[in-house]
Backbone:
């Protein structure tokens, strides 16, 4: 008879428990605003998902610039490259704010979602 425990000793029923141990300033990447600089605090999810994020350069301690977060995929800049993350995967990336990136780099035909003056 199986005990119902996973290899890590959990039952798998307390899916939000790993979020309880984070510092109070951490929040999901989906809550970050455009033009914001954030630092990754933790990545949750399965082993393969964490490995995929790490392969893209998104791991605890790495810095990200949020380029677009308008309800669809989130576009972030990591080490000079722009990546698009679906909202499900982005919700597994926990970050804390490290400041503002300054003027947005919005396309010329779009209005900056934050109402800031965009670079020309």
Residues:
């Amino acid at each position: 008879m199986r005990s119902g425990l996973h290899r890590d000793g959990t039952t798998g029923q307390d899916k939000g428990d790993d979020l309880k141990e984070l510092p109070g300033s951490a929040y999901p990447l989906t809550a970050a605003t455009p033009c914001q600089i954030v630092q990754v605090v933790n990545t949750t999810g399965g082993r393969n998902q964490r490995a995929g994020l790490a392969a893209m350069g998104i791991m605890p301690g790495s810095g990200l610039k949020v380029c677009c977060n308008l309800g669809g995929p989130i576009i972030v800049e990591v080490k000079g490259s722009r990546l698009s993350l679906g909202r499900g995967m982005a919700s597994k990336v926990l970050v804390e704010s490290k400041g503002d990136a300054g003027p947005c780099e919005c396309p010329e035909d779009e209005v900056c979602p934050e109402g800031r003056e965009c670079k020309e």
